[in-house]
Amino acid sequence: MFYDVLFTFVLSHITRAMVFPDFGEIVWLSFVKYIVVLAFFWLIWTHQVIYSSRYRERPVVDNLFLTLNLFLTIYLSSTFSLIGDDLTSTSKLFAAILLLSVGCQYLLAWHEHEPLAEILAINLLIGSAIALLSLAAGTSVAGNVIFAIATGATALGPLVLRKKLTQQSHFLNISNRLTIFTLFICARATLQVTDSLNHIDIQSILFFGSTVLLLLSYLLIVASGINQQTTKSSIYALLVHFPLVTAILLMSSVARLFIAGRILPWNFAAWTLVLLFIYTATLGIYLALYRRSTVTWRPKRAFYFIFSFALFTLYGMVTVAIGPLFLAGLCAYLIADDLFLWQFVLNDPANNDYEM
């Protein structure tokens, strides 16, 4: 639990440090760098979740590795800043050391004949080697690209093993941990409001309400739509939560910058619409992958979400220059979607009539 809380602060910290405006617009190059860095931290957390859910406890060794990994994670997060578009040599070096540390933890599990640990260990060590190669390439664009390749290579292990990992399904434990972690992320995103509540205004209140409504839609799907007893691999659940969490963090950060008057209204609206689409689509994918048999996902249900998003997009284009109106429309859109999700998707009247 403490590990998850710490990662929540790490992810929110790098979001605030790396997503910043320039002349009223979010800097796209820094945004790309941010996505790569966020994916790196997410994969570190993913490997820790897989390890703790699948392999037997080794109190002394695991606590030592946990302490070391926490230190490396905290220090690594402090090396990222909004200055420049290149990853520093210090960041790449400590990223390689962190991958090496997690890889060594899996190596010990392999030594004790734990299943599939050897493949995950080798994958992490390869990622560490590529990260060191990016360090040798310096802070140029080539070095950043190589670091992105190292991050992508780290994801190959869980993806390749996703079917084999179903032999010992731990979806119930992992999904509960994912839910708690997402709650932490939403709570942290909500706390972003404090930056704009020095002088309480309608925009800050609406921003707070929209964040709560986003969380509500997620909780509805987890509580009523997801089959917690499924034997499917939990790897997709771990990876699908990455764009979900990213959208929450970025929406809160972009809204905070807009309320503070640091980005232009049209830029805020564009980012909000894109991130809202990603969030909604990701929830749909999560529901489709692990849904209960009683959940109905008919074409008419999907059409409603597409049509309502199109209407809100049109509304947003009209009200983009008036922040309170745009945020009020966002809250109304989220309320309508949450009600439809609860009433017609997760509790389909047709299914209820059939059961009666």
Count of all domains: 2
* N- to C-terminal distance: 42 Å
Low-confidence stretches: none
Number of helices: 13
User: Pairing-aware structural class of the strands and helices?
Assistant: mainly alpha
Order of helices and strands: HEEHHHHHHHHHHHH
How much helix is in the residues? over 70%
Spatial ordering of strands, largest sheet: 1-2
> β content, as a range?
under 5%
Please state the oligomeric state of the protein chains shown.
single chain
Q: Which geometry do the CA atoms define? A: globular
Largest sheet: 2 strands, antiparallel
Give the overall pLDDT as a whole number.
83
- Radius of gyration, CA atoms, in whole angstroms: 21 Å
Q: Can you count the beta strands?
A: 2
Overview of the structural elements:
It comes from Lacticaseibacillus sharpeae JCM 1186 = DSM 20505. InterPro entries: Low_temperature_requirement_A. By secondary structure, the protein is mainly α. Helices cover 77% and strands 1% of the residues. It has 2 domains: 1-161, no CATH class; 168-356, no CATH class. The protein has a two-stranded antiparallel sheet with strand order 1-2. The longest helix has 27 residues, at 28-54. It has 13 helices and 2 strands. It has helices at residues 2-18, 28-54, 59-78, 89-111, 117-136, 141-160, 171-191, 202-224, 235-259, 265-290, 299-319, 323-345, 349-355, and strands at residues 21-22, 25-26.
